[in-house]
Write a structure and sequence with these properties.
The protein has 284 residues and is α/β, with parallel strands linked by helices. The chain is 40% helix and 17% strand. The strands form 2 sheets. The protein has an 8-stranded parallel beta barrel with strand order 1-2-3-4-7-8-9-10, surrounded by 4 helices. A two-stranded antiparallel ribbon has the order 5-6. Helix 4 packs parallel to helix 5. The protein is globular and about 55 Å long. The chain starts with a strand and ends with a helix.
């Protein structure tokens, strides 16, 4: 199993940089940051841009993979996003992972415009992923869809990672799961919003089985975000419990959050250090 950690883009860089360095020193396989204009859990908190944060993170690390958790069509056009991806892939020397989802929450309406139905969100996601794939693997792309258009979209010099950067795709329903397995190199889920941990994990089991039905025996990387129902780093025992369950279900990767001093994901860095020293090696 591979282990990842998410560092929210809320810190001034002088405070953020040591966390990104430490994530690599601790031996995490990948480190992520949220790709939102604002996030519902921390609307009143400081918040910094995803692309510059990951660019700076690439410059203070050398081996750990870096990713968006997750990029959506809510406020990004595939052509503009392509330029950011090319730069991040280059600056990180091929360590960038592009997490992608349909988009929801405050970002879906903060810039105005109509609120999309669930079906419309998947329609838009489909165009977004199809066009992004074309742009990252071709130069001079013409595309006309309902939501996105490019006219001779130039995308030189291409990705360091060939044929393009990996897409790690969030999906729940049949259409989005099929899209994920067509274009993604992995699937990521936070499970469904649930009142307690056991109900939440039951939703993870159900979603994983839905993916099995689409894959029909094919192998596919599976990433589980651990902290939706309870914070996995609330204790060593809590972390080991959820990681063990994830492993039994076939997840190849798990992702937790860097402990915050208060509020959401509040916890102790001592627990983080203990988990890395005692739990992680047993699942490598």
């Amino acid at each position: 199993m591979r282990f990842g950690i998410t560092i929210l883009p809320e810190y001034r860089w002088k405070d953020a940089a040591p966390r990104w360095r430490r994530a690599e020193e601790l031996g995490f396989d990948h480190v992520w940051t949220y790709d939102h204009l604002t996030w519902g859990g921390l609307q009143d908190s400081p918040w910094y841009g995803t692309t510059p944060t990951l660019t700076a993170a690439a410059l203070v690390t050398s081996t750990i993979r870096l990713g968006t958790f997750v990029t959506s069509p809510n406020f990004r056009h595939p052509l503009a996003l392509t330029r950011d991806i090319l730069a991040l892939d280059d600056v990180s020397d091929g360590r960038f992972l592009c997490g992608i989802g349909s988009g929801g929450g405050i970002d879906a309406t903060i810039q105005g415009g109509p609120e999309l139905t669930a079906r419309e969100k998947v329609d838009r996601l489909t165009e977004f992923v199809e066009l992004l794939d074309k742009l990252l693997t071709n130069d001079g792309v013409d595309y006309l869809g309902e939501y996105f258009e490019t006219r001779n979209g130039r995308t030189l010099p291409g990705c360091v990672q060939q044929p393009r950067v990996p897409f790690i795709m969030a999906a729940n329903g049949p259409r989005s799961l099929r899209l994920a397995t067509k274009y993604g190199t992995g699937w990521v889920t936070t499970g469904l919003k649930s009142p307690d941990f056991d109900t939440w994990f039951a939703s993870v089991v159900d979603l994983s089985h839905r993916l099995d039905d689409v894959l029909q025996g094919k192998s596919f990387d599976r990433y589980l975000a651990l902290d939706s129902a309870r914070y996995s780093l609330s204790s060593v025992a809590a972390f080991e419990d959820v990681v063990g369950r994830a492993g039994e279900l076939g997840f190849t990767d798990v992702i937790t959050h860097w402990p915050r001093s208060e509020g959401v994901y509040a916890g102790s860095e001592d627990v983080l250090e203990q988990v890395v020293a005692e739990v992680v090696p047993r699942y490598r």
